[in-house]
Specification:
about 525 residues, mainly alpha, Glycosyltransferase, three-stranded antiparallel beta sheet, two-stranded antiparallel ribbon, 5 strands, Endoglucanase, cellulase activity, cellulose degradation, signal, 6hp_glycosidase-like_sf
Length: about 525
């Protein structure tokens, strides 16, 4: 802020000229570049020649082999070496959404290519993981055996069993989220790689049909995921989420009708949310449907879509403290939901606030809260406040993005980062040896995990930079994915844009058969209270 004030006092004209590049006191362009780099550190499989995180090497090269399928590639979710399908798919969906909304801003920053490569690294893996229309591999590795060891991914000796869902062992949430990821990514590649885009859309259609036809929670089929990524909200939110993305990708009215017909029974118009993340997608669905409504696409579904929009606005109002039930914040102003990796909710919620602010601005509308009408700019200001906090504007003056600023976490809970690079010392690090030699080491990580957004502070803005403090120092791909879009938007300043212009041109009907009418929704038990 001091830097900004100096600019104002020294040269008002200079500030005016530089406004698109100086939205605030932070270097959002630099933060964006670092955020994208983190995904290269999380890569599994054969690393490409243009790999920029050079302390990493190839890993997981036999993944899927025991099951007769090639599952080499994809992303490790956090500080471990397991490939969990549900959070990986959400990560790809949110990276894609960031590009769809802020492609021009990313291109201006020179990071569009890197972000598209990050998306493709995920979707290439999903294509492999979906070898048949009704088969999807949703996990490689086991969290229990993986967490018993502290090893570089390049040295892994842990079990690499591959777990799948199929008609006998369904997983509508996993298949639905993967369908959403493939559909969103198909929009990303439509102009630059149309053949690949069509392939992604074909997989998305099949996965949605699989998810809708064979209903069930994925963690009832892949039970080893329950301890790590349990689907508490069930699968109805993912079915609606996938339908929304398939409509946006295809303009196929089947999916618009699906959202209208199932909005009430599946909770899309009923759940009033104060969170959004890899498990609970309702606020994301409500935001997308509100966009369709503002674009004039609702038609005779307008009454139902208005209910979605009301719930979207309930979420937005709760973020800025003007709703009937507001989200908790730390004394320093950060959204606070839980002790373990709270930052995931900060970036996901802030992304929705950012895009909704732009939707309303383009629509020339305002936010209707319990406390009265609110200008769209308040939502963007809120998102900016959250980003500024995580970049260092907080009571501890700590940047929670590794490598950004001077005071950032040095002992990250991350296997690859905390153990000497295999390229520096190729000597094998055994399963338990890693804990004895590297995990307990009270020193900075030998490899800087540039761009990683860690779990962050507690409810009182306190933070302990210690490797064994996994609740606060472990990063995750789904922390960073929504942040890409916000940083691109903030770096772009007040440049002209219109988020409600048609984002994509109509696409030809898919090669596969037209989706069959959705079966009558099966009511699932009411999920636990989602506050």
């Amino acid at each position: 802020m001091g830097k900004l004030m100096r600019l104002i006092s020294m040269a008002p004209l200079f500030l005016l000229l530089c406004l698109p590049f100086a939205f605030g006191g932070h270097d959002y362009n630099q933060a964006l570049s670092k955020s994208i780099l983190f995904f290269e550190a999380q890569r599994s499989g054969y690393l490409p020649h243009n790999q920029r995180v050079t302390w990493r090497a190839n890993s997981g090269l036999n993944d899927g082999k025991a099951s007769g399928v090639d599952l080499v590639g994809g992303y490790y979710d956090a500080g471990d070496n397991v490939k969990f399908g549900l959070p990986m798919a959400f990560t790809v969906t949110m990276m894609s959404w960031s590009i769809i909304e802020y492609r021009k801003q990313m291109a201006a920053n020179g990071e569009l290519g890197h972000t598209m490569e990050a998306v493709k690294w995920g979707t290439d893996y999903f294509i492999k993981a979906h070898p048949q229309p009704y088969v999807l591999y949703g996990e490689v590795g086991d969290g229990n055996s993986d967490h018993y060891c502290w090893q570089r991914p390049e040295d892994m000796t842990t079990d690499r069993h591959a777990y799948k869902i199929d008609p006998s062992n369904p997983g509508s949430d996993l298949a639905g989220e993967t369908a959403a990821a493939m559909a969103a990514a198909s929009i990303v590649f439509r102009r630059s790689n149309p053949a690949y885009s069509r392939e992604l859309l074909r997989h998305a259609y099949q996965l949605f049909e699989f998810a809708d036809k064979y209903r069930g929670k994925y963690d009832s089929s892949i039970t080893v995921a329950q301890k790590y990524y349990r689907s508490i909200s069930g699968y109805n939110d993912e079915l609606l989420w996938a339908a929304a993305w398939l409509y946006q990708a295809s303009n196929n009215k089947y999916y618009l009708n699906y959202l209208a017909k199932n909005g009430d029974s599946m909770g899309g118009t009923g759940w009033a949310m104060t969170e959004f993340g890899w498990d609970v997608k309702y606020a994301g669905v409500q935001t997308l449907v509100a966009k369709f409504l503002m674009q004039g696409k609702a038609g005779h579904h307008t009454p139902v879509f208005e209910k979605y929009r009301q719930k979207a606005e309930y979420f937005m109002c709760s973020l800025i403290g003007k709703g009937s039930r507001n989200i908790q914040k730390t004394p320093g102003g950060l959204i606070y939901r839980q002790r373990w990796n709270n930052m995931q909710f900060v970036t996901s919620a802030s992304f929705l606030a950012t895009v909704y602010s732009d939707y309303l601005t383009s629509y020339r509308g305002s936010l209707k809260c319990a406390a009265g009408n609110v200008a769209p700019s308040e939502l963007l200001s809120f998102a900016k406040s959250q980003v500024d906090y995580l970049l260092g504007d907080n009571p501890r003056a700590t940047s929670y993005m590794v490598g950004y600023g001077n005071n950032y976490p040095r002992q990250v809970h991350h296997r690859g980062s905390s153990i000497v690079s295999i390229k520096v010392n190729p000597k094998f690090v055994a399963c338990r040896q890693g804990y004895a030699t590297w995990y307990t080491r009270k020193a900075s990580d030998p490899n800087v995990l540039t761009g990683a957004l860690v779990g962050g502070p507690d409810a009182y803005d306190n933070f302990a930079d210690e490797r064994d403090n996994y609740e606060q120092t472990e990063p995750a791909t789904y922390n960073n994915a929504p942040l890409l879009g916000i940083l691109a938007r903030l770096a772009g300043g007040h440049g002209g844009y219109n988020q409600l212009l048609p984002v994509v041109a109509p696409v030809p009907n898919p090669v596969i058969a037209k989706p069959k009418p959705a079966p009558k929704p099966k009511r699932t038990p009411t999920p636990v209270q989602l506050l």
